[in-house]
Amino acid sequence: MTRDDLPPGLAAAQLGHALVGYVLAQPAQAARWHTRSNNLVCLAVPTLEALSGLVERLAGASVPMLCFHEPDLGGELTAVAVAPSGARLLASLPLALRQVSQDEGPVVLSEGTSDTAG
What we know:
Strand content: 15-25%
Order of helices and strands: EHHEHEEHEE
Number of strands: 6
CATH class: Alpha Beta
CATH superfamily: Bit1
CATH architecture: 3-Layer(aba) Sandwich
Structural class: alpha+beta
């Protein structure tokens, strides 16, 4: 999950950083997730304070996670990758990047493919 107070492109990058960090830190758990479900859900909270509070709740419930702190933002917490066991605690959060409008044009997914933002 990331923060809604970040610009959409920055928020997307932070989600990627958190995911890659989690996979590298927890390779066996990431491999089980990839084999069993392979589902990704990108969620958002409104602010740094909300993200920090949610991290505390997840830690209190012993949910595995990886917090990403962006060096270019003074080390601020910008995203968190959460193990599937944390899904219940995150169920009420909205999807991330919903503020991206159709007017912003295509988003390049990979070489030769694109999708309309939104």
